[in-house]
Amino acid sequence: MRPIIAAIQNRHSTRNFLAQPVEPELIDTMIEAARLAPAACNLSHHRVLVIDQPEDLEVVRRAAYSMGAVAEAPLVLLHMADTSLDEPFRAMMEAMASDPNPAFDLSKLRSGRGAPFQLRVGREWALVNAALCGEHMMLQAVEMGLSGCWVHHFAHDEVREHFAIPAHIEFLALMAIGYAAKPVPASPGRGELRYPRYPANPAG
Ligand SMILES: Cc1cc2nc3c(=O)[nH]c(=O)nc-3n(C[C@H](O)[C@H](O)[C@H](O)COP(=O)(O)O)c2cc1C
Q1: Contact, 136 vs 34, CB < 8 A?
Q2: What's the rounded Cα separation, in Å, for the pair 39 and 172?
Q3: From the alpha carbon of 12, which atom of ligand 1 is closest?
Q4: Which domains are seen in the chain, by residue range?
């Protein structure tokens, strides 16, 4: 089987882990996988905090209600997005627009209905970029024999306060990572993803 689809098919949210720690070089490889994810305008919105020290793990475990994947994982990656990168990017675009010989002139661009070019930046942009990095990390973990689970249900304020993380860094998830204690069955499928063209053809 080709390796990428094998990792995708073998990834199942794992909530029970062995106590065995995750080797530092595997953590580095996961972060490298995140770094290589595609990113809108090539901006690095993604931030990862590696949590593997007992006193820090205790804080995130309690923040995650002492249950589920975070309760047992020897490694938790706090997966975040820096939402403060809009300003410098807008400034760069404005500088480009005021260049007498711009590489390309955005002000001349028009959509099919004549709308001027709109810069689609903002929080969603940061979250999309960071989310891509998260699944790169997870699939890389699976490819190296690890397992994990995304966990969004935790008391964000408790984690933010403990690690003194500023407000412009948003949390996407705690990613619980480790060696699975037992095989995890595949979850039921998520149904049809292909969106029908709209309006549907009444003639079928
Ligand atoms: C963004 C996100 C947040 C999630 N949050 C939680 C969570 O808080 N707790 C949990 O046990 N699982 C969480 N999950 C795991 C999902 O429950 C799981 O992906 C889903 O049931 C499908 O199962 P599978 O991952 O094994 O295919 C989360 C998954 C994603 C992608």
Answers
A1: yes
A2: 16
A3: 26
A4: 3-90+120-178 (3.40.109.10)
From atom 4 of ligand 1, which residue's Cα is the shortest distance away? 151
User: pTM higher than 0.85 for the full model?
Assistant: yes
Distance 144 CA to ligand 1 centre (A): 20
Q: How far is it, in rounded angstroms, from Cα 79 to Cα 135? A: 10
In this structure, what DSSP letter does residue 103 have? S
Which atom from ligand 1 is nearest to the alpha carbon of 68?
Answer: 11
Query: Is residue 114 left, alpha or beta, with left meaning phi > 0 and alpha meaning psi from -120 to 50?
Result: left
Report DSSP state, residue 12: -
Ligand 1 atom index nearest CA of 64: 8
Is the beta carbon of 10 within 6 A of some atom in ligand 1?
A: no
**pLDDT band (50, 70, 90) for residue 147:** very high
Q: How far is the CA of 104 from the centre of ligand 1 (A)?
A: 43
For residue 28, the number of C-alpha atoms closer than 13 Å in the C-beta half-sphere is 3
CB 147 within 8 A of CB 180: yes
- How many of the other CB atoms lie within 10 Å of CB of 36? 11
Tens digits of per-residue pLDDT, 184-201? Answer: 999 988 888 888 887 766
